[in-house]
Each structure stands twice: as C-alpha cells, then as structure tokens.
Amino acid sequence: MNYFLVLSKTHGGSVLSRYQRLRLEGRLCDVVLVAGGGSRFPAHRSLLASSSDYFWSLFQEHTHEFQAPTVHLPQLSDVGLSHILDFIYSSWLFLSPTTLEKVLEAACYLQVTGAIQLCSSYIADNLSPDNCCFFANVAARYGIADALSAANSFIAQRMREFLKPGDGDWDGLLQLNGDSLQMVLRAEEIPGVQEQALLTLLLDWLDHHKLSSLRSNLLLSNIRFALVPLEELSQLCASRPALQTPFIKSLVLKALEYHRQGPRKPLLQTTHSTLRTQRAKVLLVGGGPEADRPEREVLTFDLHSKKFCPLTLLPCRVQHHCICTLGNFLFVLGGEVVEVDESEKVIGRVVTDQVWRYDPRFQHWEELAQMGEKRASFSCCLVDGVMHVIGGRGARGAEDLVLDIVEVYDMDVDCWRRAPDLPLSMHGQACSTHGGTIYISGGIHGNQAESSREVYSMEPCGSQWEKRAPMSIARYGHQMAVVGDRIYTFLGMYEPFCDIECYNPLQDEWTRLRPLLNDRFCYGLALMPPPNEAQVLLIGGRKWRDAQEVATANMLVYDTESDSWREVCKLPKPLSGTRCTLMHIPDLAET
Q: Which of 44, 85, 305, 520 has the fewest CB atoms inside 10 Å of its own CB, making it the most exposed?
C-alpha cells in the first residue's frame, strides 16, 4: 500500500479562530485570569498551556492552580495581559511605543516566546533617532539580545545626530542604560563623531549615574584617549574626578605620552589611537587637470559610495613626488615644488628634499627630517615598517644630476641614513616589495635617453642589488603593484605598447597580459582592499589625442584573476600626476 502525508495550511488558523469565538462567547472557558489592575479575562487552560511555558508549568496536576477557577497575576498590567491573550488566541500582536513595555512584561513573565520574538522584530524594524535610546533601554531591561544589538548599532551609526548642538537628543543619551553605552563605545564605526565628544558624553553620563569605580573604569576604558587632542585631554584630566582613578589615569598618561612622541607615532599604534572607521578610502594626493601645474588638494574616494570628497591641502604644490602610509599616517616625500604667482602662472620649479606627514586623526600636517638628497621622479617603498627612497633626479646647488643613492628613514630618531647604493644611477623607475625583498624596474639609467627593461632586487638586510630577468618592454614613469604572489607592472610614458606584465619572483620570469585599449601615463595606482584585493585601480592620467597630451577623467580597475579591465566611475575633473594609497579616514564631510 502507498501512504501519503499531507498538510493543511488552514487547520491551525481555523482552530485558533474557533478558540477565539469560544472566548468571546464565554463558552467552555475553564479559568479566569485576573490582572494587576483588576480586569478579568476568561480563558481556556488547554490553549494557555499550549502557548505559554508559564501556564504549562502552572496547570500541572500537582499544582494548586490545576483546577482553580481563578488565577491572579498581580505583576501584570491589564493592557499587557490583554494583548498577550489576544496574541495567544489570534497570532496577532498589537504594539506601539506606549504599550511595548507592558506587552513585553507580560510576554516575558508568561514565557510566550512567539510574542517576545515579535516585540524584538518590532524594535529592530522601527528604530528612529527619537526612540532608539528608549528601545535600547527596554530591550536591555527584558534581555532581548537581537533587539538590543540592533538598537546599539543604530545609536552608534547615528551618534552624530544625537550630539549635534541644539538638535541632538542629549537627554536621551544621558538616560541610556550602561550596557548599551558600553557597546556603543566599543563600536569600530561611529561616523562623523570625534573622540572628545564621546568622552564628554560619557563623563556627563557618569555624573548622572553614580557607579562604582570598577564599573566607571570599565566604561571609560572604551574611550580612545590618544584620539583626544592634547590640550583637551589635559584639561579634562585635571577637572573630572572620573579620570583620576589609578587605572584610568594610567591610560590618560599613556595617551599624553603618545602625543609627545612626534616622529615615532606611526610605530606606536594601539586600539587607543586607531580611528573609529572600518572602511579604507583611496587618497588622491597631488596632481591636477594640467601637466606641470599640480594642485594642493587631497581627495578621498569611497569605494562603496563611489563619491569623492576633499580631505586637506598639501603644504605646497608638488609633482613627481612619492607617498606612502604607515600606522595610518600619510607621508609625502620629495618631488618638484611648483611655484605660481597670484594669477596662477608658473614662475618656478625646484626639486625638494622635504618630507611631510599627515595625521588624519587631527587633520594635521607636520614636517619631518629632510632627506639627505633632493629627489624627484624617484621611488619609495616600505620594508618591515622602514621607508626606503631610491634614485631619482636630484639637485645639488645649481647642478642637476641622476642619483644612485638609497636612503632609509629611522623614525626612532627622525633622521635619514644611507643604504646600499644602486648599481647605477636612475630615475623614473618603479618599485614594489614582495616578501620583504625590494624590486625596481625600468626607468632611465644614467645619462641615457632611452628607458630600460632591467629589473633589480635587494633582499632584506642585503648589502647589494642583484639583477633579475628583464621586462619584455622598456618602461619609464610606470608603476608596479604586488597582488598575491605576483608583481604586476603597468603602463609608463612614451611606450609604443599598452601591455602590462606580471613577474613570478620564484621562477624569475615575466608574462605578458591583456593590454589596456588606450595608452595612459602619469596616472595614480592603488590596490583594492579586501574582499577585492585581486583588483588594482588606475586613476586618471594623461594620454595622447590628436598629437597632444590630454588629462583623463575616469577611473579603471584591472582584475588580476580575469585579466580584464573595466571603468569604475568618472572623476570630478581630469586628473594627472596624482599619487594614490589606501587609508582609513574619518567621514570629515559630516563633522
């Protein structure tokens, strides 16, 4: 024989509908529930026990209430019990901000799991700046983890609105429960909010909530004290008692000491000096719409929103420079400083040895020790946190020269020292690091007029440069990028080809890849952050059109896995000569 198991989708609803009809008509009800306000609710034991763990236990044969005609529930409000009974009999739960607490109180007391889940969803789906603190307090009071997490995350993401003078909900924040406040202060992403604002909020909150020193310390330990400006931190430390406990005072003293470290700051990064932002942005440093007329503006590009925003201004107009990042600090090294008059006419160019460092925590530029040589069209890289500057066009007095000198920067003492020289002088070469080994390729060597295909490398702690397999194309003004276990070499100036190629360091060999459809040079290059680390951004640049160089206004991406190119977006304006890197930058446009 064949057997079939079939399901009726209407039977459950039909049974509940009949129970509701019996309840409304007062038929077959075998118990009366009496709420704290005195209201009486006739009901059916069988349905109550099937819907509530509390009633399941209450109506066991060995209990006093097993056959009691009336059950008193003085802890529950009339409204709360009424709404929960409506849910038990219909599966519908009527919720509003004014009834939420009473309904949750009844649902939790009676252990009606389905109603608690609906309350949790109601909180998570109806969060707004006006109610999120209230909802967070309710969720914390009744231990609704999912709703509490949603409310805490909402508060962290909208904190800027709450702290806005005149428009914010300061009183609501001061009434926020301690667990929610702690989770907000632990958030890695609080857009548009400076750390001193969070510290001021917490100190005011502590004034309204008298806590033990242990609990106060636990909350204050979530503040990133090194992100609070030195003067403000010193003043608060001297005037607020909550910062005077031994534990918190030790954290404050560490932050004050960090502020005094000067050049060593990139080497001293901890959680307390890390910006509250998870997304890395692309920095576009220098360059401009016209060749040899760079602008000072530094732009950020958000990879998710595809938006460009101004970040800061460079200390000077510079081109043919290098940049690198360490400890989420931006370093701008050397280049040609371009001087213009009041009418923006170029009146001079001079190769520089200056080194500037930008701190996005406080939007501050600082000049560091000058390099030993003035350099432009050189290369720069980081090896184990140590900056190397390599070759380039130099200047000594009135004399122009091509350099074979390599220097490294010692951050501990803010000075530059010599490293092993290049095998020959060069400029316009590209540079990258793989496994701690420095690789340089191409460029123009010595006083030659043509670019080179040669590749050199130096191992960590090495004493000399070694020759590697040459590229298939001679390149100058090109760029290199490491993706996975390969080194990719991209377009350069005045090349007859648009090919790119990749290098396998283990096999010491090059492979030609799919070319870009059009020539391009003087572009910016940046690696994509995870999960798109197999992609490389090519930003702006110049190309030939009608026998003239013109700046381009788009951004391309090269996918190393599919060996393919595509356009990402348009730039705000044509841009060439920019240098690019990834950094974590706060959303300053909203501060």
A: 305
Residues β-bridged to residue 521: 542
Q: 157 pLDDT band (50/70/90 cuts)?
A: very high
Q: Report residue 550's pLDDT band, with 50, 70 and 90 as the boundaries.
A: confident
What value does the mean pLDDT take over residues 487-505? 86
Contact 120, 149 (CB under 8 A): no
The residue count of the chain comes to 591
What is the H or E stretch that residue 554 is in? strand 554-559
> Global pTM?
0.87
Name the band, by pLDDT with cuts 50, 70 and 90, for residue 168: low
* Other residues' Cβ atoms within 10 Å of the Cβ of residue 219: 20
Quote the tokens at residue 23: 């309840």
Contact at 8 Å (CB) between 540 and 553? yes
Cα 54 versus chain centre, distance: 46
Q: Please, are residues 370 and 407 in contact by the beta-carbon 8 Å criterion?
A: no
Q: Summarize the confidence of residues 163-168 as an average pLDDT.
A: 70
pLDDT value at position 362?
93
CA nearest neighbour of 454 among 416, 428, 417, 435: 428
C-alpha distance from residue 409 to each of 263, 350, 415, 418, 582 (Å): 11, 22, 6, 9, 21
In the sheet that holds 406-410, the strands lie side by side as 379-383, 386-390, 406-410, 415-419
- Return the domain boundaries, the chain: 1-126, 280-590
Domain 280-590 class? Answer: mainly beta
The overall average pLDDT reported for the chain is 89
Nearest-angstrom CA–CA distance, 473 and 370: 35
Of the chain, the percentage scoring pLDDT greater than 70 comes to 96
Other Cβ atoms within 10 Å of 122 Cβ, number:
18
